[in-house]
Amino acid sequence: MPEPKPQQRLREEFDRWAADGRGESMEHDHWPIARPALELMQIAETSNIMDVGCGAGWLSRILAQRAPRGRVVGMDISDEMIAHARKASAGQKNLSFVVGTVDNIPWEPNFFDRIITVESSYYWPDPAQGVRELYRVATNNGSAWTLINYYRDNPYCHQWGKLLAVPTHLLSAEEWKNLFRDAGFKNVAHQLIPDPTPNRATYTGRWFRDAKELAAFRAIGALLVHGTK
What we know:
By secondary structure, this protein is α/β, with parallel strands linked by helices. The protein is 39% helix and 21% strand. It has a single domain, classed as Vaccinia Virus protein VP39 (Rossmann fold), CATH 3.40.50.150.
């Protein structure tokens, strides 16, 4: 059966990102907001963790260090990203990678104590189905966490959708929380994580109009939504 068109577009786009080395740059861009999220997750040495949309595996490697007696699995839709992740992670015995899509995670139910996805969930063709799959593979009392910079409550990111080569979902914090609740998660909550990265005096990228807009975006911060099974 041929792959659905949205999934194929995602795979092709992130294969291109991998070829351009953009998977390796994600740590620099996203660690300032991911670090506080990991502290809130309360990861144990024995935790089994899935990193959904792992890219080149930078966060998966950090998670594997924090759970040395557990198991970490990074999953990405891009074959090329997974190839980069496996190469960069050789020797970490508690870490493995799989190619897969969030609408049909290739793993058994009730396995992961913690699930995290950083900067990937707004790309999911069907966010509701994706969150249901997070619920399926989480253990009882396990938790799922999604961290994103592209969401409706931060007006300084709204223009990104027009600049990206694949479709995105611009949802609010309340809409994301409702998806978690509808999937069955309890104690669903959210918070904003400001980005502490120092701002330059000038900005020449394409994502923001100027340095002032970038600073305002970082001050509001990323959206972290989480719930417990």
